[in-house]
Amino acid sequence: QEYTWRIQSNLNEGEPGYIALEEDFAELATEMSDGRIEFEIYPVGSLFPIADGLEAVGSGVTEMAVLTGGYYTGKLGPIATLESGVPGSMRTPLERFNFFYERGFIDLAREAYSDSGVYYLGPQFSPSWDIVSTVPITSKEDFEGLKIRSFGLEAEWYESMGAEPVFMSGGDIYSALATGTIDAARWASPAGNMNNSFHEVADYYVQPSPMPVPNNFFAVNSQAWEALPDDLKAILNQAAVASSLSYITLSMNEDANAMQEMIDSGMEVSTIPPEEWTEMEAEARKLWRAYDEEGGLAAEGVEMLDQFLQDMGYSQ
Amino acid sequence: MIDPVMATVVLFGGMILFLGLGVPIAFALGGFSAGMIYFFWSPQALNMVAIKAYNTVSSFEYLAIPLFIFMAAMLQRARIAEDLYNTMQVFFGGLRGGLAIGTIVICTIFAAMAGISGAATISMGLIAIPAMLSRGYGKGVALGSIAAGGSLGILIPPSVTMIVYGIVANTSIGKLYAGGLLPGLVLAAIFCVYLLARGWIQPEISGGALARRYSLWEKAVSIKGLILPLLLIVSVMGSILTGIASVSEAGAVGAAGSLVAAALLGRLNWSSVEDACKETLMLSCMIFWIIVGATALSTFYTAMGASRLIEGLVLDLELNRWMVVIAMLSILLVLGMLLDTVGIIMITAPIFVPIVTQLGFDPVWFGILFIILMEIGFLTPPFGYNLFYLRGVAPSHVTMTDIYYSVLPFIALMLFGVGLFMVFPQIILYLPEMIF
Amino acid sequence: MLNSAVKLVDTVIACLGKLAALFILAIIATMVLEMVMRGVFGMSTPWAGDVSSWLLVGVIFLGGPWALANGNFVRVDAVFGILPARVKALIDSTVSTVLFALFAYVLIDFGGDLALRSFQIGETSATGAWEGPVWVSKALVPLGTCLLSLAWVSHLIRSWQDLKQDGTDINHD
Ligand code: NA
Ligand code: NA
After folding, report:
1. Cβ–Cβ contact B426 with A under 8 A
2. Tell me, what's the ipTM?
3. Which residue windows are transmembrane per the record (chain B) (predicted)?
4. pLDDT tens digits, B198-216
5. B31, B146, B413, C96: least CB-packed within 10 angstroms?
């Protein structure tokens, strides 16, 4: 082979997103390139913390990584939040696919990350990021006084409904839910939440999801990217799309199983009725629309997103 | 790229050489890693060392370390630790090895307050080493019981190590928590029985010279020495259990509580607070600089394909299922001599756990054995955090050789415990099966 | 001349160290404040988590040089402890110094880049809950390591001077 790249995943071995990276990105690209590029995959955090992923990939600690934009708002501003997905916007992965690849949001993302020495290869769409809670949440009022682990735009959103957002690192959530330091936590999809054992300490699974179609992204070191010939670049672009779709489909199965298993173990689904949810989503839209004032890429992103939602016939 | 077998040999060789020569541990680990990364990974990858250094030192979970050290330093300055040991002396003074047993008991309680190891070892080292040495205990008994007792911190919940393991190995954290409790208590009991036996055989190093029985009145009077430490324990554990504090924040309750306790006794003054701060800084620097170096080393080893090496080793085994488990635990024992806990979990858990499950073993049972092997890793040379921590807190007449010898019997006892839990898996599985 | 330079370095390091030691009280205060605000007033302090972590960075990197000067960077002294002072000084001046230099170089150079980059892009807290500048604490990594290097040099000079005077042990603890 001509190229060997290290990739750090955003997940642990065996999780759907890791498998989608391994089989449908790495192995596929190796096969399509006739073995000219090969990959070694490492689980999340084993080479560097994901919060420092931009510096790590940008400086070439690894040639590539799957990263999560939500961690980089402090570095890149609101465009990173828009890239990860925002509440009150799209609802299906295909819409997101359209938005990135047909509407051209991917170009905005590429521009945003280029300053960090990172080539934004493409999004890896992920299953929903949901809320688990120790108290039932069936209305907007139930957020009043709710101590919920969250951050960024979502934290502002919950706060606007009277909640008390608490930021804490992933490792503290389990014990914090168990003892009541927090009442709720926004974390991953059903399979991810079950992997963290949250169903043991939180009785309610809140629906609908605040983040129904978020995404992580494939980050490539700019120099490593530039060093590739055009045909390999094209192969990696296609492999990214393939991996993205396979992650969504793999997770459908895993999430359905996990949900069933958690319900069997006594967890209850707590649903907010549609009319009320629509109202809440409108609140969220106000928050990210305000990014408009920041100008630059953030403003462009907001405009693009608004236009898209309008074209899809979603309410204001 | 370097072959993982080669990397293992070079790592082991380098560590033994540089640590053996007496290079300050942090610099040996950090400098050696930097050189290896430069030559065998890539010069750009050196960024990882700086990234991880900042990330480790600024991570919220690790704040518990300085906070609990401060608590211990303050308790010592306010002579509350002294009072506590006086009380223990009055109650257990007639029993040879009694204070060592008392130390194990306090370590066990400490383990239930802190989620991170190091907190307990350092804090107890600070309090218990001088207290035991001054009451007729030998270095071996004093040091060994603290090193071993302190390592219980990751087995008895709460435990940050178990959370890391649970997530990486996809094992229920609640079941691990429940599964760790009884083995933790059993190990503590094993330590106590051993200390009792040793006190009987070797009274001269187990407080025998100062042994005497105290009257009932003396005992009643001395109980007041227990009040403040007990209140402090109740408030730290209470703050976690009632949700006032997260596990990482509980250390702050302990630290603030130690100031309040000192004030209640009228022993709070600026110079002792300043002193406690200084001691906390000194010991925290020792620990964190070592952690930074150790993290660089295990990350390098991970990047060089350590997982593939381990996978190859295990998959080649054509043994019966029990021998496979024993082989895995042996690999953990060896890696424990070289690497830090998180590194070992990252490298081995994703490989071991699916195999163990496939062989029909309970993943919670295996998880607890895994955690105990991590505890043993804290004690095994050349790289053992608890050994270094003790070096940092022990008076200067205690040598590293003393520390090595002191932990050997406890390593043997823990391995005995591992055997016991393999033969009687119910010790691990009883609570998880009852609760879940 | 050399002596007064060493003395100056030692003084600066001790002053910074004493300051950093007080950060520990600030950490306790910040965390207690957060617990009280959350528990009693039901609102989380957005900056408490970051500030306490950043203070710890200060403790470790500004305090590190002082800890080194006080002999708190532990060694495995099973062999080292029984070596003659001259051999100890020789090991420290060669092997230890090379390893130290490698480690320090990485933290100063690459850590410096990280801090500079953080400053240039105006990085703020990752939680997005407040606008705290991250570069301040990131800059402590290269800064602290520079001071640590000075402390190491001062330690080496001391150990050779002690040797010349009376052949005493090089550890100042
Ligand atoms: Na514990
Ligand atoms: Na070890």
Report:
1. no
2. 0.90
3. 12-41, 62-80, 100-129, 141-168, 180-201, 221-244, 250-268, 280-302, 322-352, 364-383, 403-431
4. 988 988 888 777 777 888 8
5. B413
